[in-house]
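[step 3/7] inverse_fold.run input=structure_tokens len=172
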């Protein structure tokens, strides 16, 4: 709770403003090519947070570096954010820490909060041969210094579990 953190003098890295989740049950391992469940998770998270798509600065993608997954997630971001998608700094920290399965969402949420706190988006490392359908700003190979007020974290699971968290810079 905020008041407890303030009373303790704790460092506040950001606030959880909203979340969205869905279960599309498309396939045990493959993402829904239309991205309906992911779109629902992201739009519900934005709605719960009271955030407009054009206010989002950064998304820590689920990004597992698979042809099906990366293209599908990129396409859902384009559908949810429209023209603003090209202005968002995207990344996948899995490129650095690997896929930790159940811990991935927690690790990536910490990375998103640190992006807000430090004003720097970590890179997606080892991007060499980018799929032509992945045509957004993936913060390829070098960190990007920028003001991040709103960040999202996408986490998807086997069987079509999809979740999105919305974080916002703390304003005292």
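[step 3/7] decode complete -> sequence:
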């Amino acid at each position: 709770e905020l008041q407890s953190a303030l009373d303790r003098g704790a460092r506040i890295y950001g606030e959880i403003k909203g979340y969205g989740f869905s279960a599309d049950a498309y396939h045990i391992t493959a993402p829904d090519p239309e991205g309906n469940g992911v779109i629902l998770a992201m739009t519900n998270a934005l709605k719960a947070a009271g955030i407009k798509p054009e206010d989002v600065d950064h998304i820590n993608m689920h990004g597992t570096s698979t042809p099906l997954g990366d293209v599908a997630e990129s396409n859902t971001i384009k559908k949810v954010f429209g023209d603003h998608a090209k202005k968002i700094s995207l990344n996948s920290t899995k490129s650095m820490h690997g896929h930790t399965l159940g811990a991935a969402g927690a690790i990536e949420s910490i990375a998103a909060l640190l992006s807000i706190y430090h004003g720097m988006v970590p890179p997606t490392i080892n991007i060499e041969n980018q799929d032509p359908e992945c045509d957004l700003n993936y913060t390829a190979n070098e960190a990007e210094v920028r003001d991040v007020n709103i960040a999202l974290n996408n986490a998807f699971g086997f069987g079509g579990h999809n979740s999105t968290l919305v974080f916002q810079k703390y304003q005292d």
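[step 4/7] annotate
The chain has a mean pLDDT of 95.
The beta strands are 15-23, 58-60, 89-91, 120-121, 144-145, 150-157, 161-168.
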